[in-house]
Amino acid sequence: MVINYGMTSKKALECYGAKFLARAHTCRKVCLPMKDAMDGDAVHWYLAVIMLDDKQVHLLDSYPSKKRQRSRRNAVVTMIEFLDGLFEDLYRQVEPTLDPPVLEKFSLTIPSIPEQRHESDSGVWVCSWMMGASWDSSYNIWPCGDIRRMQLALYLVQQPTNYIRHVVIEEANRN
């Protein structure tokens, strides 16, 4: 999103720093949902997970495509380059005595993960990986289906940061 709007790392820090980045220097993992706009209206989601302690970037794609592999890797590399500048600016402001991680030196790996049968489930897989990323680095998720979609929807609706949470709950109680 930030890169699509042509933001510099300094501008991103200015806009989002107070809300999202105040404790970024204590992060161990950073999840980057990535969107691949394909032919026509098709959209595919995949995930890059930056493992700061391990100095690795994991590229997770539940529906890999040989045709799109290079462009997806390049998009992750572009995001890493952007984040390098962001981390450098952030550390300068928040923790000037610490050196920021140099993400461009991290190895980009593609772990062996389950693959989905239908391309249309990629967003559900990305959400599942992100929800489990804090405690699990194996990226094994259960198969997608209506039950999993409903679990994700309920989880997202119930989050305190969902600003229309009360509306959804009121509607559910009415029905």
From TrEMBL:
Pfam families: Peptidase_C48 (PF02902). GO terms for molecular function: cysteine-type peptidase activity. Residues 1-133 form the Ubiquitin-like protease family profile domain. It comes from the Eukaryota. SUPFAM superfamilies: Cysteine proteinases. One of its GO terms (biological process) is proteolysis. PROSITE patterns: ULP_PROTEASE (PS50600). The keyword Protease applies. Signal peptide: none annotated. Keywords: Hydrolase, Protease. Belongs to the peptidase C48 family. This is Ubiquitin-like protease family profile domain-containing protein. It comes from Linum tenue.
